[in-house]
Amino acid sequence: xxxQRTGTVYLRETLGQLVNDLNRENRDMEIFSSxxxxxxxxxxxxxxxxxxxxxxAACQRLLDAIVGxxxxxxxxxxxxxxxxxxxxxxxxxxxDITVIGSFFFLRFxxxxxxxxxxxxxIDSPPQLRLARGLIYITKILQNMSNxxxxxxxxxxxxxxxxxxxxxxxxxxxxxxxxxxHVVDPPFVRQGxxxxxxxxxxEVLRYLSKLEPVLYMIxx
Length: 219
Fold this sequence. Notes:
mainly alpha; GTPase Activation - p120GAP, domain 1; about 70% helix; about 0% strand; globular
């Protein structure tokens, strides 16, 4: 994928030190009571509360790093986001930020965060505790990108709705800033560089998958 090829250095510079820090801290981040088999029933609720706090704190640190990285986001990714924004804005005005969130988080950041060693964020696989926590964090980020709160189907994730609400405004502002105000670099304006061909193909592929869904939900 174009985003993954273009964003490897950005991912490592933005999240590498933080993920390594989280890995060294090695805090318990298991939030599903059914998976806390070694914890006594009397202590399970207390452990769950602490583990949720650990996940929320780690998620907040990752969010802060991501939102603070807008100026270092590769121009190629910003151009892709901008062209997506322009195209969707013209057809589905109310879905522009949701689509940008889907491109940037669901297709790029979340898969990288879930397996940070494979994405080049860190060199070795994370410890099991952090690996579990990163899965939960990506679920939070995915729901934020879709602007959907956790509900009855994922009761164990409902406590994170407050974290999402607290960060939603700056989350949306970040997506707007990386997509709506971008000056195309010369290779895009000229349309002669192979990078432009790759970029345009990526946008068209993504829109071809999204457009039927947007028509179905009538946004």
